[in-house]
Amino acid sequence: MAKSKKGKTVIAGVAAVSAASILTVRGIFHKVFARQEKEDDAISLRYKDMSGMVRKKITIVSGSTHLTGYLYGEASAKGLVVVCHGIAGGGEDNLSMVKYMLDDGYQVFTFDYTGVYESEGASSVGFYQAVKDLNAVLGYIEASASLKNLPVFLYGHSWGGYTAAAVLNFKHNIAGVITISGFSSPMAITKEAAGRIIPTLLVDLLLPFAALYQRIIFGKNYNLSAIDGINSCDVPVLVMHGKEDEVISYEGSSIIAQRSHITNPNVEYYTETRPGKSNHMGIFFTKGGTAYYLAKKEELKMLHDLYYNRVPEKVLSKWFARLDKKQANDLDPLFVKTVLDFLDKNCK
Length: 348
What we know:
42% of the residues lie in helices and 14% in strands. It is an alpha/beta fold.
């Protein structure tokens, strides 16, 4: 009788810990993937900053969600570049590079994931959601009379870098992929990011529940591998990463860390090692641009903290009026050349 009572107590304890763990994980995911609204102004370039740039709004259905995208350079016929954004922004935050692609003769399609900016959705759900959304975008392109015959390239940074590579697990006709500072799988980056803020023992406890939570939502593809996607085809892939990346570790959760497991013969690697440029955002910008961008990003965060995220419009407008957007978005010539050379080389 005593053993039976003890057994029930253990079972009850395990159930309580499990319930608490899944609720903790759910709360974390809801916070990380909370809906992101588009600000009228930002440190990155906005469409209103781009004189002469013309675009067409396109709505795409992903599951039951309506995504908003924009097609730029509709008259160009060289190829089509689909841009996949990172976790802290949306499609419009990549316009500095979009301009170079347009000038080089490409059409460019940017879009917001579920729960981001102009797209529907109460949240962006989880990492795999972006792959589902990109899969829907590619389906739209393949059914479009004006787009389906163009060479299609994928370009993404961070979450977008993972997304652009992971979607290769699905059989689309892709001319090339540029994955910048991307992680290899959702669980790899989840473990790495959690390890920076909570003890290892707690990470080990919560990780199985994080996997379970995502599996319940997304099914078997919850941890879809970017490496498997790259290896599933012979599509040319350019893997770019900064040696001192503080968000997605070069030797940790990154795609480039798995290069010994990559078998696709058409993969190229670009490692950024220059001082002041090899961090997560610095890979894009000049050294001076990186320093300015990061300083202004921290300054803006402090301003929001000061006003408890309710900065008066006058104060915010004054801050942005002093911002040098040209300097904050000063792309590194070598980075731009590497990207455009890859596109041109594989544009068939």
